[in-house]
Amino acid sequence: MMIKSLKVTKLFDEYDYSLDICCPLTFLHSPNGMGKSTLMRMTYAALKGDVRYLSDTPFERMEIWFEDDAIMVLQKYEGRLNVLMQKNEVDTPLTPDDMAEVCKTVYIPPERLAIRKRDGHMVPTLEAYAHELYEKFRYAKEHTELEPHPEQVRSDLNDGELEFWSKDLKAKLDFIKDAGFEPDIPSRMKFPPSRYDISKDRRGYEELTASISEYVKRNYVLAESVIIFKDIVNEIFLDKTVTVSDSGKIGITMNNGMSLPLVKLSSGEKQIIIMFYALLFHAEPGSIVILDEPEISLHVSWQQKLGRYFSDICRVRNIQMIVATHSPQVIHDMWDSARELRPSDA
Predict the structure, then answer these.
(1) Which residues of 100-130 are buried (b: 16+ CB within 10 A; e: fewer)?
(2) Which terminus of the chain, N or C, has fewer Cβ atoms within 10 Å?
(3) Strand partners, 189
(4) Residue 300: which residues within 8 A CB-CB, separation 6 or more?
(5) Taking a C-beta distance cutoff of 8 angstroms, is the pair 35, 341 a contact?
């Protein structure tokens, strides 16, 4: 569910804002001190059920309008926060858990180089993400077996349609293999099968194709994320290449062939890896991503490339991005997607 507008009354007991949101990509800009980052953090808090942050932030009323004409309303009465969803003239009170179920949301803050673990300790974000990707690969490689899915068997397909479906799945399997993992297909069965193969073992290939279809659903987005991540980062980096090994380890290779530890990357290079990793590996299809100050530590030439990559990821993943920035270079040639945060009475 995508956002189409944001409204807030008496932010910091002073500002009233009404903001139309572009879909799928909006750049939000304003002078310092106007509450841009606070509004982004409030939006994320509202969609994650973080009532503590919302209660601690001075405002009177906030409305998040969605494309299906539903409105999340957050209203403070005598210091108490009340949240409800309005749709079709019906008001439904929302608990924090209800708020978090409205849509999947990812927040990428300006302080990106370190993150807090569940035990409260701060760790370098690159280290945490590298370990996370390794674990994703380990899980995928430990679950290469094809499980039966009788509910997915397509007995309604004729032999030609089953053959076509198998060829489509084979192309996706090849894509997944390029990322470093693949399923265990029984050696006695040929995939994709010919119509002759299907005619000899129709039921067997119906079940195999259904199982492979489920495997693709589980792993295609991960494989796609790995490939797009490498493509984008390597287009940006000048004298080095990012690799992801078959075991899921992120590596850096200089143009002269020397390996470079992740900790030796420049601040800007770390920002690029962290930002695009979060976009590709944390934002599920259909998510809303709120990104604050992507320009941090980036050269102007790198800033100017970001909008195109953001737009491509929005399209491929069917996500919505709201990007708060101080830099006109980040917006670059996409001013039709830019919105200035100005008080309603300005």
Answers:
(1) bebbbbbbbeeebeebeeeeeeeeebbebbb
(2) C
(3) none
(4) 329
(5) yes
H helix intervals, the chain: 36-48, 51-56, 96-100, 125-142, 159-179, 195-200, 202-236, 267-277, 300-317, 328-331
How far apart (Å, rounded) are the C-alpha atoms in residues 316 and 39? 27
1-104+283-346 has which fold?
Answer: Rossmann fold (3.40.50)
Reported as a single tens digit per residue, the pLDDT across 67-87 is 999 999 999 988 899 999 999
pTM across the whole model: 0.91
Treating both helix axes as pointing N-terminal to C-terminal, what angle do 267-277 and 300-317 enclose, rounded to 10 degrees? 10
Q: Cα 5 to chain center, whole Å?
A: 20
323, 25 Cβ separation under 8 angstroms: yes
**Sole residue written with tokens 């309303």:** 73
Dihedral pair phi/psi, residue 234, rounded to 5°: -75, -20
DSSP structure string for 272-284: HHHHHHIIIII--
Whether the CB-CB separation of 292 and 109 falls below 8 Å is answered with yes
Nearest Cα residue to 67 out of 118, 123, 15, 22: 22
- Domain assignments of the chain as residue spans, ordered by start: 1-104+283-346, 145-225
The CA distance from 100 to 76, in Å, is 19
